[in-house]
Design brief:
The protein has 487 residues and is α/β, with parallel strands linked by helices. 41% of the residues lie in helices and 11% in strands. The strands form four sheets. A five-stranded mixed beta sheet has the order 1-7-6-5-4, with helices on both faces. α4 packs parallel to α14 and α18 crosses α19. The structure holds ligand F0G. The site of ligand F0G has 16 residues, from α5 and α11.
Length: 487
């Protein structure tokens, strides 16, 4: 869009990011004392999802629904057209989807996982149907398995190496994809799923070259290619940075190429564009017809899909704003700043810096904690205790048990510190850095966790844990020695 602005990226040799926006509405934060933080951990089962925001200083749980909205988005919400059917707000969203994602048909849903529910319901026809993908996301996996499907994850080996600087760790391994399709039979593969900015491996992008190769294989066997576009803007931004063929392209061009390669594009608008909503879109009328009836069944009428019309207006404006590199680059630049400064101080981080958040390698930091005692969950709890910053466990607690009820241990044990778009200041990011370096230096004081309440589905959301030993108090004693009583 505005190429003049885009060139201003950092203003100093220290890679300090420069924001091209100003703050006009603010929300007051609390930093409660460490004793209260310990109580809050016990009340919330050592699960950061269960903390109340009154006990949270910086909320780095997620970017989902927490990115800052623009003045244009907020003002658009005021003109929303309240109607059960035929709302003008929906038609404006449909136009935005056509302009930005280049897809004619849109099915609105209340959030990303609702799209996963509808796609799994429509396309998983028999037990054991297989969905190959670059990597799973928790909700996608849960819906696929609910309908009797299975998944296979096909990344290249580099993706599993935390400190590899491979620019496109989210690439889908096309040699393996071909082999899996031949072994399984294309009739047992309802679709291939490609996730933009692959969330659970540290917000790592795929390249357009890779997606083109995946498309060729999909065409060769006649299998649908489904794109999870929840983090599409950021994937496109990293393509501009890292894929030489697109160094001079615009966000609009790159986004159009990516969505053009997929038969079906679905998204969580909570991440892609605004604060609520989601959608499924396609250019294929037959696909639209296959899915259409499920929207009124699960979501709401076809022109609101369970989303408020105000949020639909914000989605439409947000989709156009996704094309603005100065807007999309803000979170990845802060993440890059945080990851590089922590790496330079020895803290093991997922590299290269990805999107959505900075990802801390708990497997290495808590190498003294066995995976049976959830090192990433322990690190998330310990970091909240010593900072008031709430991150999210992205390790074995976020995994689900296999069909025989056995634990499955995650490939990576990560603490994710989300950096929602245009929400935090650089001094807050520096506070995160400072506290994490302190915790790293005192990492031997962190101990493991065990489940005391384990829900059968998506256990990480509401599960309850407790420490396996009295490690929290030891951490507090050391913290007070170093910082005194004031924090
Ligand atoms: N796909 C991806 C890649 C996601 O990151 C998410 C959500 C979803 C689908 C589901 O969308 O939440 O609107 O139902 N990710 C959030 C996160 C929850 O914190 O990473 P949803």
């Amino acid at each position: 869009m505005n190429k003049e602005n885009v060139k201003i990226k950092f203003y100093s040799g220290e890679n300090i990011p420069l924001e091209l926006h100003k703050v006009r509405i603010v929300q007051k934060l609390n930093l409660v004392p460490i004793e209260r933080r310990l109580e809050a951990l016990y009340e919330g089962g050592f699960n950061t999802f269960r903390l109340s925001t009154k006990d949270v200083f910086l909320d780095m749980l997620t970017d989902s629904g927490t990115n800052a909205m623009s003045d244009m988005q907020l003002s658009s919400m005021m003109r929303a057209d309240d109607a059960y059917a035929g709302s003008q707000s929906f038609y404006r969203l449909q136009q935005a989807v056509e302009d930005v994602l280049k897809k004619k048909y849109l099915l609105p849903v209340h959030q990303g996982r609702a799209a996963e529910n509808i796609l799994s319901n429509a396309y998983i026809r028999k037990k054991g149907d297989l969905i190959p993908m670059n990597y799973h996301f928790t909700t996608a996996l849960a819906h696929i398995t609910q309908y009797g499907g299975r998944i296979v994850e096909l990344l290249y080996d580099e993706a599993y190496k935390i400190d590899s600087r491979h620019p496109f760790k989210g690439n889908l391994n096309v040699e393996k994809l071909d082999a899996v399709i031949r072994e399984t039979g294309k009739e047992n593969i309802p679709f291939i799923r490609m996730e933009a900015s692959t969330n659970l491996i540290g917000g790592q992008p795929f390249s357009i070259q890779n997606m083109r190769e995946v498309r060729k294989i999909a065409d060769r066997y006649g299998i649908r290619l489904v794109l999870d576009a929840s983090l599409l803007g950021e994937n496109a931004y990293l393509i501009l940075q890292r894929e030489p063929e697109f160094a001079d392209s615009s966000m609009a061009e790159v986004i159009a190429i990516i969505t053009g390669l997929a038969d079906i594009v679905y998204f969580s608008a909570r991440k892609l564009s605004s604060s609520r909503g989601g959608g499924i879109c396609t250019n294929d009328l037959a696909i639209y017809r296959e899915l259409e009836a499920l929207v009124p069944l699960f979501e709401g009428f076809l022109t609101y899909g369970g989303i408020s019309v105000r949020e639909i207006e914000a989605m439409a404006v947000g989709l156009y704003e996704t094309l603005d590199e100065t807007m999309i680059c803000q979170s990845p630049q802060f993440i890059s700043y945080l990851v590089e400064s922590l790496t330079s101080k020895g803290v093991p981080m997922v590299t290269p810096p990805g999107v959505l958040g900075a990802h801390v390698d708990a497997m290495q930091i808590c190498s003294h904690i066995p995976q049976t005692q959830y090192p990433a969950g322990a690190l998330a709890a310990a970091f909240y205790l010593v900072s008031g910053v709430r991150g999210m466990e992205r390790g074995s607690i976020s995994n689900q048990r296999d069909e025989n009820g056995n634990e499955t241990y995650a490939d990576m044990e990560l603490l994710r510190l989300a950096v929602p778009r245009r929400v935090f200041t650089l001094s807050q990011i520096k506070y995160v850095e400072d506290r994490l370096v302190w915790l790293y230096e005192n990492r031997n004081l962190i101990g493991g966790l065990k489940f005391v309440y384990e829900p059968p589905v998506l256990r990480f959301f509401m599960g309850g844990l407790e420490p396996v030993s009295d490690w929290t108090n030891k951490l507090i004693v050391k913290f007070k020695e170093d910082f005194g009583d004031s924090l």
